[in-house]
Amino acid sequence: MEGFTTTTTKASAQPLENADVLIASVETFIFDCDGVIWKGDKLIDGVPETLDMLRSKGKRLVFVTNNSTKSRKQYGKKFETLGLSVSEEEIFASSFAAAAYLKSINFPKDKKVYVIGEDGILKELELAGFQYLGGPKFGQQEDGEKKIELKPGFLMEHDKDVGAVVVGFDRYFNYYKVQYGTLCIRENPGCLFIATNRDAVTHLTDAQEWAGGGSMVGAICGSTQREPHVVGKPSTFMMDYLAVKFGILKSQICMVGDRLDTDILFGQNGGCKTLLVLSGVTTLSMLQSPNNSIQPDFYTNKISDFLASKAATV
Amino acid sequence: MESTTPNPTSTAAAELLTGANAKLLLDSVDAFLFDCDGVIWKGDKLIDGIPETLEMLRSKGKKLVFVTNNSTKSRIQYANKFRTLGLSVSQDEIFSSSFAAAMYLKVNQFPPQKKVYVIGGEGIVQELQLAGFTALGGPEDVEKRAQWKSNCLFEHDKDVGAVVVGLDPDINYYKLQYGTLCIRENPGCLFIATNRDSVGHMTDLQEWPGAGCMVGAICGSTEREPVVVGKPSTFMMEFLLQKFNLSTSRMCMVGDRLDTDILFGQNAGCKTLLVLSGVTTRSILDDPSNKIQPDYYTNKVSDILGLLGE
């Protein structure tokens, strides 16, 4: 995790009682996706109406997710399948962030990027014009996964032109991929180590938690003894990017998320208002636990409470 | 250095082993503790001059002990490996981190009705079974794959009371998920690491990611730190001392890695000898960022033989 700390002692989060005031005070809403908009492949109740209402009030909507398995285009399709009209340009996944980061530092086009991660990262790198290798099926033979035979004389070669290793969530994680990335980072001079995110767990299915990108990143930290540059939440890279892109002031933004150490910290680090929803991984008791030091401005059950509050306004 | 107290912050530069100081070293120690990967062998190939050197040391009445962080084999399996390579070493002389993990559970009275989930190899599973514990996972979970369909729940055994993580070239998402759920959801579940070596010479030609990789993965998904039973933790030294009635100041730790072997030796109050036949080069030793200075350094173990004119 990046070493961000909140500089002020935060007052406890307030339950969201007057949504209209919050809505009126900001120009843009940034939504996390897993646990806020959907859970797995199921839309959370009341989301379509809520988004429509916000748009009708002239609010800009942006979707920022640490989930790197899909590209923005693929996320656009997911939104469409779920009946929501969200354009690609409104979506910022950590897969996109990795490519945007490389672009922002003028990563040379004659260098290559090695990826431990899934399709989304590969697609975004391709769109950005970078040469890449790796991805989910890397090192697999036709009949299945490549078996490493650790026997005398076996040498794994690696491409000396790899100038960056991008690590994200990878369900097809294996030793072969780890070794390849480790060799690049340890032996290619100046090789960058970039992490899409470090989420410990993620909700792949709505029923339970699954080991997240933090696991794959932790593995590479372990073998290289290096810390990565993180482009996803809570790093503010994506916030800075979209603030410039849309020409918006961060004080005019409200970040809405279900996770304290990524979403809310992201919003606070960026200087935005923050709203925690309890429709995802965080419960009220976790929020109020003495062990928790991250206090959003507001909390509520789910985003469709925006509609209920409106109705309840006297 | 004759000090009996550990001096881990000593930064006096390591001395190159010479004929003179090699003789002094030999006279001042009664036992040599050897790391294995990068010291005795590289992968499955013996390093030059090892058999003759070990024989010479034994002939001079020195006790030989092998302390390895590589948890893929049990002590019995290591004894077999030694034999295959033409060296006669008994399992009592071997202290592997696989053995250390089982002993940690034993000395901490881990209830035998609880189970242990293993991310690692046969070595850990065997040592756990020898110590009377029930081991799940290990090589059995190599071919398992996770499913993530809406109605599919990834199940895990609620009786798992400890997860042991070691070197696992067959690491996969299923194992990461299983270990993660045990640690996060089974109340009081222990998280034990055999060791945290970043890389090691798993083959003769190059370094490969070590247990530090698998342990790092589980740290990443659980946000917890493990208890480490292998070097540089001195946990294994307790067992060594039980076996040999010797002061640690009469022991010399010989290893190829500064942050495990040499630190282990220093923490325990032993003399330390770094060999450059493994993961550490002269430039790593001399680099200003390196804070760990062994007492002595030399190219390889068999230099002892050469320097003594044997």
Class from secondary-structure proportions of chain B: alpha/beta
CATH top level of the largest domain in chain B is: Alpha Beta
Q: Let me know the CATH homologous superfamily of the largest domain in chain B.
A: HAD superfamily/HAD-like
- Report the β-strand fraction of chain A as a percent range: 15-25%
Number of strands of chain B: 16
Q: What is the CATH topology of the largest domain in chain B? A: Rossmann fold
- One letter per element, helices H and strands E, the order of chain B comes to EHEEEHEHEHEHEEHEEEHEHEHEHEH
Helix content of chain A: 25-40%
Q: What report would you give on this structure?
A:
The complex is a heterodimer of chains A (about 325) and B (about 300). With about 325 residues, chain A is of the alpha/beta class. Helices cover about 35% and strands about 20% of the residues of chain A. Chain A contains eleven helices and 16 strands. Chain A has helices at about 20-25, 45-55, 70-80, 95-105, 120-125, 175-185, 215-225, 235-245, 260-270, 285-290, 305-310, and strands at about 15, 30, 40, 40-45, 60-65, 90-95, 110-115, 130-135, 160-165, 190-195, 200-205, 210, 230, 255, 275, 300. In chain A, α4 packs parallel to α5 and α6 crosses α7. The longest helix of chain A has 13 residues, at about 175-185. The radius of gyration of chain A is 20 Å and the shape is elongated. Chain B has about 300 residues and is α/β, with parallel strands linked by helices. Chain B folds into two domains: about 10-70 and about 230-305, HAD superfamily/HAD-like (Rossmann fold, 3-Layer(aba) Sandwich); about 110-230, Rossmann fold (3-Layer(aba) Sandwich), CATH 3.40.50. Chain B has helices at about 20-30, 50-60, 75-85, 95-105, 120-130, 175-185, 210-220, 235-245, 260-270, 280-285, 305; strands spanning about 15, 30-35, 40, 45, 65-70, 95, 115-120, 135, 160-165, 190-195, 200, 210, 225-230, 250-255, 270-275, 295-300. Chain B has a seven-stranded parallel β-sheet with strand order 1-16-15-14-2-5-6, sandwiched between helices. In chain B, β3 and β4 (about 45) form a beta hairpin. Mean pLDDT of chain B is about 95; it is low at about 1-5. Classes of the chains: A alpha/beta (about 325), B alpha/beta (about 300). The interface of A and B includes residues 153 and 215 of A. Chain A: It catalyses: 2-phosphoglycolate + H2O = glycolate + phosphate. Chain A: Keywords: Hydrolase. Chain A: It comes from Hibiscus sabdariffa (roselle).
